[in-house]
Structure formats: structure tokens, C-alpha cells
Sequence to fold (153 residues):
Amino acid sequence: ELNECNENEYRCHNGLCIPEEFWEDGQGEADCLDRSDEIPDISYSRSCFHDPTFRCEEHSCRTNWHEFSCGDGQCVQKFDKCHNGRHILLTELMKLQGNLSDQCWIAMICLTQLVTEINEISCQIWLNNDLIIEYLQTCDTIFQFPINPIHYD
Fold:
């Protein structure tokens, strides 16, 4: 649900409304949990895991940047490593096939670029031809991947 903000408010990317004067106020602290009200600070995501405060624990990553939330304020690209090891949990969960068909699971693993090959066949081969589309069509209309959720963000 997206909030409708007043004229004197800034709407964060996650829908939260903050006073407009807090938008890009350059005070070092973001007021939006997704930090969309400030210019991105690369050093923040590298050091936040040392800081067990609300601003780090409750931080959410920007989905349009294809970031994964490590749960401690750090955001990483795709399958980069989290300082706290959360990426390992994600990788292990994604390797579980569960009740997905072989073809659906192969398609999901290759599309997420979790691994470079499956069953000694390069994912690039699956991705470069229409076989991946056929494999995706074997997936149920609604399915969960990974089979166990790691976070809601």
C-alpha cells in the first residue's frame, strides 16, 4: 500500500512520507528506511553491520537496484557476500528443489544466476535458446522460490 503524501512531504520509494525539509538534508542520517531521501553512500552499507542500531537493523534495500538485504543494514548486489553470512542461507535455500519440477527448478536456478552450470551443462546454454522458456512453462502458475522464504523486504 502506497501512502499519499501531503504537498509538504517527500514520499520515500517504499511509500513512507517524511517532512519535505528532511529530503536530501545532507545530515548524514537517512530519514526513509530505504534511504531514498539521501544521496547513496557506498560506505554506509559496508560499515553498518558494525552498528547495531535501529537505523541499520530496520534499513530496507532498494529493489529497483536489484539489491539483497543482509538484514543488518548492508545491501549487496545479487549474490555478493553479506558480512553476517545471510547470503549463504539464501544460496542454500535456492539449491533446494522442493516440489518444483526439474525443468522449473533448472530455469529458476539459471535465471537467478545462482550457479553457472547445472548437471554439468552451462546455464548460458539454457539461457541462450528457447529451452529456458519451455522449462519456465512447466512451473505452476503460482509457486514459491526459494521453497522457504528468507525475508520479506
Q: What stands out?
A: Residues 102-111 form the longest helix (10 residues).
